[in-house]
């Protein structure tokens, strides 16, 4: 069994981006600039955005963090986004989700200029992805594709089962895996909460991508020998034996499934660390496009 190490891979990607930024500096050009908008004091969002800022510092990007109070109105946030759209010094930016309940997430995401939408959530970028046109791929699917490529995992002609149909992971993964690309050319099945005989389907899969948000859902009895397992889930499960009172698990029962898998991503340390690295990669792409 080969452990697919997202921490090591993401570190390598960041080093590659840092080398590119170093060359940009040597040419006396401005460096890429990424901005993030954070509304409110959600703990997980603050942690995640803080990690993004530190990652920008590591690779040499300029970064701007715009922190707005919880009671920021939708109109105020829209005006902030429009200002970022029109700022030529900002190559790309994200609005950290979730937003407070009084703000329409979709309305906000629709207002972000597609050429600065480095999260890849705007309908224009989703449409371009569907048509196999150059675009920003949302960070989690992008990270999975990068792991498959860098670990030289064969995908052409393989049967891939994606469990989950979210707009952020499941649907884009199914599209990417079926396209003509290095980590692609696969036959893809999308399974979800209404799928009957799910275990019979996953047992046929050469590659299983679990992105349904149910802790340790995929068990050894549901996969065949030497399957490749990509675990996208991340859930805190109460555990009194741990100092923090919980442990972090994925959608895969790692202990049992890892004994049958040829390759598997751990949780934590698998897909998760790749998201920020791929966000940086998207922003570097936006920078080159905006020159």
Distance between the termini: 44 Å
- Please give the CATH architecture of the largest domain: 3-Layer(aba) Sandwich
Output the CATH homologous superfamily of the largest domain.
NAD(P)-binding Rossmann-like Domain
Mean pLDDT: 96
Q: What is Rg?
A: 19 Å
Number of strands: 11
What is the CATH T-level topology of the largest domain? Rossmann fold
Largest sheet: 6 strands, parallel
Walk me through the topology.
Elements: E1 2-3, H1 6-26, E2 33-39, H2 43-59, E3 62-68, H3 74-85, E4 92-95, H4 105-111, H5 123-130, H6 139-150, E5 159-163, H7 170-178, E6 187-191, H8 198-202, E7 207-210, E8 228-231, E9 235-238, E10 246-249, H9 254-257, E11 263-264, H10 274-290
Parallel strand pairs: 1-11, 2-3, 2-4, 5-6, 5-7, 7-8, 8-11
Antiparallel strand pairs: 9-10
Explain what this protein looks like in three dimensions.
This protein is an alpha/beta fold and 291 residues long. It folds into 2 domains: 28-114, Leucine Dehydrogenase, chain A, domain 1 (Rossmann fold); 139-264, 3-Layer(aba) Sandwich (Rossmann fold), CATH 3.40.50.720. The protein is 38% helix and 16% strand. The protein contains 10 helices and 11 strands. The protein has helices spanning 6-26, 43-59, 74-85, 105-111, 123-130, 139-150, 170-178, 198-202, 254-257, 274-290, and strands spanning 2-3, 33-39, 62-68, 92-95, 159-163, 187-191, 207-210, 228-231, 235-238, 246-249, 263-264. It has a 6-stranded parallel sheet. Strand 2 (33-39), helix 2 (43-59) and strand 3 form a beta-alpha-beta unit. Helix 1 packs parallel to helix 10 (274-290) and helix 6 crosses helix 7 (170-178). The chain is globular and about 55 Å long.
């Amino acid at each position: 069994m080969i452990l697919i190490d997202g921490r090591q891979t993401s570190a390598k990607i960041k080093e590659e981006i840092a080398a590119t930024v170093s060359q940009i500096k040597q040419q006396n050009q401005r460096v890429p600039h990424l901005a993030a908008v954070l509304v409110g004091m959600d703990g997980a969002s603050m942690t995640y955005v803080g990690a993004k800022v530190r990652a920008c510092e590591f690779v040499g990007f300029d970064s701007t963090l715009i922190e707005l109070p919880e009671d920021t109105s939708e109109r105020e946030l829209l005006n902030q986004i429009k200002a970022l759209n029109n700022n030529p010094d900002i190559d790309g930016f994200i609005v950290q989700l979730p937003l407070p309940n009084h703000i329409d997430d979709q309305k906000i995401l629709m207002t972000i200029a597609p050429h600065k939408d480095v999260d890849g959530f705007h309908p224009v970028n989703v449409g371009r992805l569907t048509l196999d046109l150059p675009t920003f791929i949302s960070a989690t699917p992008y990270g999975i594709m990068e792991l498959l490529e860098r670990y030289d995992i064969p995908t052409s002609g393989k049967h891939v089962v994606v469990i989950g149909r979210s707009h952020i992971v499941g649907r884009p993964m199914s599209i990417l895996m079926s396209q003509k690309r290095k980590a692609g050319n696969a036959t893809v099945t999308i399974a979800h909460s209404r799928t009957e005989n799910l275990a019979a389907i996953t047992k046929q899969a050469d590659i299983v991508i679990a992105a349904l948000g149910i802790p340790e859902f995929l068990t050894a009895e549901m996969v065949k020998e030497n399957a490749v397992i990509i675990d996208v889930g991340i859930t805190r499960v109460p555990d009194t034996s741990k100092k923090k009172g919980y442990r972090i698990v994925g959608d895969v029962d790692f202990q049992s499934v890892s004994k049958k898998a040829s390759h598997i991503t751990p949780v934590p340390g698998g897909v998760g660390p790749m998201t920020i690295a791929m966000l940086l990669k998207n922003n570097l792409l936006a920078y080159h496009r905006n020159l």
